[in-house]
TrEMBL record, chain A:
Gene3D superfamilies: Decaprenyl diphosphate synthase-like. It is found in: Endoplasmic reticulum membrane. GO terms for biological process: dolichyl monophosphate biosynthetic process; endoplasmic reticulum unfolded protein response; protein N-linked glycosylation via asparagine; response to low light intensity stimulus; response to water deprivation. GO terms for molecular function: ditrans,polycis-polyprenyl diphosphate synthase [(2E,6E)-farnesyl diphosphate specific] activity. Keywords: Endoplasmic reticulum, Magnesium, Membrane, Transferase, Transmembrane, Transmembrane helix. This is ditrans,polycis-polyprenyl diphosphate synthase [(2E,6E)-farnesyldiphosphate specific]. Belongs to the UPP synthase family. It catalyses: n isopentenyl diphosphate + (2E,6E)-farnesyl diphosphate = a di-trans,poly-cis-polyprenyl diphosphate + n diphosphate. The keyword Membrane applies. Its main location: endoplasmic reticulum. Signal peptide: none annotated.
TrEMBL record, chain B:
It holds the Pfam family Prenyltransf. The lineage of its organism: Eukaryota, Viridiplantae, Streptophyta, Embryophyta, Tracheophyta. The chain crosses the membrane at residues 6-23. PROSITE patterns: UPP_SYNTHASE. It comes from Brassica napus. CDD domains: Cis_IPPS (cd00475). GO terms for cellular component: chloroplast stroma. This is Alkyl transferase.
Length: 253, 296
């Protein structure tokens, strides 16, 4: 009994030191990874300024025709600063982007729609012009929020459900197969949603997720995290768009 | 004594950790691989036992994703880079998968979803598709005892209409044999399409409505959530989605489920995704501040 007590205390003490040491090692791993990201962040900043100044030749001409539809996801905190969103849209107009979908989960940008349309030169609302009738000198804007995601699919599903129930044959109890992609696309249009799939999605904010952008539209969209909207850089934007134009998708085949 | 020990561990980490990032395929000795897993498990326990510190800090330090989804991209490019056949690339990818699944469960991840074969992949050459189906069969046969021994629940999600009968039979067998296990869940997405998942959920709800089980007016997001193929999991929405090979898209995988999923796109090809890459992905995830669309 007397011998066991010191042994127990010793093993507990060794265990605690071991745990402490292991915790240090894990924290050190975090430090190494953080440093890695800081260093690459510095390189990216320097490159971005060089691109903005036109010092890197390959970014001076971009095949913008490949980018038919661009979507921008903005974190809620960033969406409150509408001036930065307007500045971003002005940059996109300069680059030659024709169609931009602006998303924030709470719909703050939707509320500032009129101001944004007024401040961004040659901008029009996509809903008014339609995707096929955008003038070459215009930029069509679409304002999207979380209500256009799952809520919209639920509304569209309701339409399909009712269509299915109406189509059930009384003899065999079998209804029409209305649960296809084209049917859901049509139902989404009926509830006022666009089904156009963006080619590129730029995410501005601290999170690296698409924050609830309409799921139905995200199938083959390139997703690029751009960092904070407050510290956005024209060079980084050009680089992301240029990189997208070089992507070759095989669509799973 | 304490400071000496901490100096010793720091020096050890200084020497060993950079090696994990420098070598493309570190030949990490088995004891070190197990040590890395032990480090993480021990650290999580240490954080759980801590009496002081804010809940936020504790969460950030010890937080592991409950559900990790992986798009296993890059097998063909890996094979092409080495002058090998495409089938050898897929075999290397399958070996990598089996090597790391248990390691992931050991560090506290409850659910792992693997995008093994998409609906669009049926468009690949017949030879490649047939090889992949045969490979899935072979792996299910050879690994069934392994999953049973380690109490890993296996679920296969996807269409199943075009799969060979022999593979279907094996899938049913392995799902039945492992259905009672709860702590570790491996979801294989074979012939899976995110859009089809949403559509089949709507169709199932339509059948329930036809049979009087629900009313049309009651249809909402949560009902669709319950009918998706991922409803077989305790954690249907992935916390972290990894797509290897540098491609930055989710390619019709978990469209509905990934609204607030952290997306991680490393450049490494799937057969080269080793322990160092796992460590990077998990430490990256732990540094994220998840908001789920809300203000902080």
């Amino acid at each position: 009994m007397d011998f066991n007590d010191p042994m127990l205390a010793l093993s507990s003490w060794i265990g605690q030191i071991g745990d402490f040491g292991l915790d240090l090692v894990w924290r050190f791993i975090h430090i190494v990874v953080t440093l890695w990201h800081i260093v690459s962040g510095i390189f990216e900043s320097v490159e971005s300024y060089a691109i903005s100044l036109g010092l890197i030749q390959k970014y001076s001409s971009i095949d913008i025709e490949k980018l038919k539809c661009l979507a921008v996801v903005v974190d809620i905190e960033a969406a409150r600063d509408v001036s930065k969103v307007i500045e971003l849209l002005q940059w996109l107009t300069t680059i030659g982007v024709k169609q931009v979908g602006l998303f924030d989960s709470q719909g703050l940008l939707k509320k500032s729609k009129d101001m944004i349309l007024e401040m961004v030169p040659r901008s029009v609302l996509l809903q008014e012009t339609g995707e096929k009738h955008i003038s070459p000198d215009r930029i069509a804007l679409e304002f999207i929020s979380s209500s256009d995601n799952k809520e919209a699919v639920v509304k569209a599903a309701n339409i399909l459900l009712e269509k299915y129930l109406k189509s059930i044959h009384p003899e065999n109890g079998v209804g029409e197969n209305v649960f296809t992609e084209s049917h859901l696309n049509e139902a989404l249009r009926v509830v006022g949603e666009s089904v156009h799939v963006p080619d590129l999605l730029l995410v501005y904010g601290p999170v690296r997720s698409h924050l609830g952008f309409p799921a139905w539209r995200l199938r083959y969209t390139e997703i690029v995290h751009m960092g904070s909207l407050k510290y956005m850089r024209y060079g980084s934007l050009l680089k992301a768009i240029h990189k997208f134009t070089g992507v070759r998708q095989n669509y799973g085949v | 004594m304490l400071s000496l020990l901490s100096i010793f561990f720091t020096c050890l980490a200084l020497i060993l950790i950079p090696c994990l990032f420098i070598f493309r395929r570190p030949s990490v000795p088995l004891f070190l691989k197990k040590a890395i897993i032990f480090i993480k498990t021990a650290t999580s326990q240490y954080n759980d036992e801590e009496e002081s510190g804010t809940i936020e800090g504790k969460e950030k330090r010890g937080r592991m994703p409950k559900h990790v989804a992986i798009i296993l991209d890059g097998n063909r490019r890996w094979a092409n880079k080495r002058g090998l056949r495409v089938s050898e690339g897929h075999e290397a990818g399958a070996r990598r998968l089996l090597e790391h699944v248990m390691d992931c469960f050991a560090i506290g991840i409850n659910t792992i979803s693997l995008f093994a074969f998409s609906t669009e992949n049926w468009g690949r050459p017949d030879g490649e598709v047939n090889f992949l189906m045969a490979m899935f069969e072979k792996n299910f046969k050879s690994e069934m005892a392994y999953y049973d021994r380690y109490k890993v629940k296996i679920s296969v999600i996807g269409r199943r209409t075009n799969m060979p009968e022999s593979l279907l039979g094996l899938i049913q067998e392995v799902e039945e044999a492992t259905k009672s296990y709860k702590e570790k869940h491996l979801i294989m997405a074979i012939d899976y399409s995110g859009r089809f998942d949403i559509l089949q959920a709507c169709k199932r709800l339509a059948e329930k409505t036809k049979n009087g089980l629900i009313q049309v007016e009651d249809l909402d997001e949560r009902m669709i959530d319950k009918e998706l193929m991922t409803s077989c999991s305790e954690y249907p929405n992935p916390d972290l989605l990894i797509r290897t090979s540098g491609e930055q898209r989710i390619s019709n995988f978990f469209l509905w489920q990934s609204a607030y999923t952290e997306l991680y796109f490393p450049n490494v090809l799937w057969p080269d995704f080793g322990e160092a890459e796992y460590l990077k992905a998990l430490t990256w995830y732990q540094q994220r501040q998840r908001r789920f669309g809300l203000r902080v």
